[in-house]
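Hey team,

Filing this mostly as a record. A colleague (T.K.) asked me to run one chain through the structure pipeline before their review meeting, and I want the input and output archived in the tracker in case anyone asks later how it was produced. No errors, nothing strange. Just documentation.

Input sequence:
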Amino acid sequence: MKPETIDAEGLRLRPFRPADVPDVTAGCADPLTQRFLDGLPSPYTEADARRWVAEGAPAAFAGGGAAYAVADPATDRLLGTVGLSNPVPQRNQAEIGYWVAPSARGRGVAGAATRALAGRAFADGFARLELLAHVENSISQRVALAAGFRPEGVRRGAAPVRGGGRRDLTVWVRLADDPPGPYPRPLPDLPDGRLTDGVVVLRPLEPADADQMYRLHTGPDVAASRVPPGVPTREEIDRRGLAAASQWLTGTAASMTILDAESDAVAGSCALIYDQPATGQAMLGYSLFPDWRGRGYAGRTVRLLARWGFDRVGLARIWAGTLPENVASRRVLERAGFRYEGQLRGRLPGGSGTRADSTVYALLPGDLTR
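Output structure:
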């Protein structure tokens, strides 16, 4: 690409200038930028910024990519950067990336800059652009959605971590002939960030819930109902919390924490797993701490989750499965309107190489009880 100015959506994409050095230094030294851009020097100094402006950015253009300063057109002040890296000419493909200065975050700068550069890249002959983000970087994944990129999966261990180790990267892609506008989300955000009936509150699962989730899922009865049964490691629970926002954004699963509305105490967890988007079907599941069982919290959770699934997600059918001997859970489902559909022999892995049967219950929109 040629290093020419692009004006779009109230932003100006232009080549870097020596006057940008202080803002580049501050932006690249910011903790959030450092957290998700492991390739940056740490600490990031003014000398690093000078090298980038004088050598790094021009080299990106010379190599078939791009490195633009994103500026306020009224003041020419740097708001961030957006660029194309790792071009593959034989595939007409490149990766698009960005960072935004702390003072400019929350204003749609990243999404607007990404759309502007993507549009120019496609006009210049690129056919496919990839946007890669750390699994836990839900902010960047929201930018991808807003810029019309679609989720394609996860690259395991694709990113080296500063100081050692590797991280997974989510892959978001936009093609030259994709329709304009944001990519529609299969699982929308919760209204006001939560669901509640005044007694129970459901909110998105967060990494900070890891201690409580580890305690919940290592309980003997909850561990016995896992698939396969067994006690999870703390690492598994931590990964689940870090990936929860990404799974929600990609439309895979909506994992939530169950709270008591009065005390804000954690009562358990639940999830709506969108297992068959093509047919409008999802699976519902939940677990409660022993102290919160027998108080109607499970039924309230099931109704809140199902109502959101039907009314906001647009589901046509929700199903749930239990072990045949789990009479309490079966009663919860039946009271909420789920209908028994049968028992699947040997459907689930059991302990010591055995197999366990599973009952199947299903709920249609008109079945849900109050």
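Quick notes for T.K.: The mean pLDDT is 95. The longest strand covers residues 78-88.
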